[in-house]
Amino acid sequence: MRIRHSVISPNKIELQMTPMIDIVFQMLAFFIMTLKIVTIEGDFSVKMPPDSPQEGSLEDQMLPPMTVRLRADSEGELAGIQFADRDFPSFAALNQYVIQLVGSDRGPGSMADTAEVELDADFFLKYRYTMDAITAISGYVTPEGEVVKLIDKIRFSKPREGE
Questions:
Q1: Distance between CA 137 and CA 128 in Å, rounded?
Q2: How far is CA 134 from each of CA 16, 25, 124, 129, rounded to the nearest angstrom?
Q3: Given CA atoms 50, 53, 59, 61 in this order, what sign does their dihedral have?
Q4: For every one of its 163 residues, what pLDDT tens digit does the chain have, with 9 covering 90 and above?
Q5: Which residues pair with 155 in a beta bridge?
Q6: Checking DSSP bridges between strand 66-72 and strand 78-83, what pairing results, if any?
Q7: Is 103 left (phi over 0), alpha (psi -120 to 50) or beta?
Q8: What are the residue boundaries of the structural domains of the chain, listed by start?
């Protein structure tokens, strides 16, 4: 940027605005071109297992959470899914069962609002199966692109080793 002294008045300094405007527009174009719009990730209400046993509220003691048991084979692959003493062949079948269990009732005091699920997975189970279970339990996306939440409260039990 050049600062030019005027010939008429030596005390007056004239700033060249054109290069400054050019730079601003170049920066604007750069930031618009490099902007990446990301999709919103899932927001899960997840409780990790406590380090030591603690006394919970009376409500926690009276309503134990439903447990999803994920069994792994020796390779860490999924060997079985069990929920509410039922075996499921796939996460899609688990999702359909949760949809039937929760129903269409939403809002405070509904089954979807009060239900809590505990994930009980083998120690060597691959991570993707845990995420598939969370996805099957927490909701689904309709063909129109609408997200339907099922069960928000998900917690983990301590991992089982060597079973």
A1: 14
A2: 60, 46, 17, 9
A3: positive
A4: 556 555 566 677 888 889 999 999 999 999 999 988 776 666 666 666 666 555 554 444 344 568 889 888 888 899 999 987 889 999 989 888 888 887 766 666 666 667 788 888 888 888 899 889 988 888 888 888 887 788 888 888 876 665 5
A5: 47, 118
A6: antiparallel
A7: left
A8: 3-34, 45-156
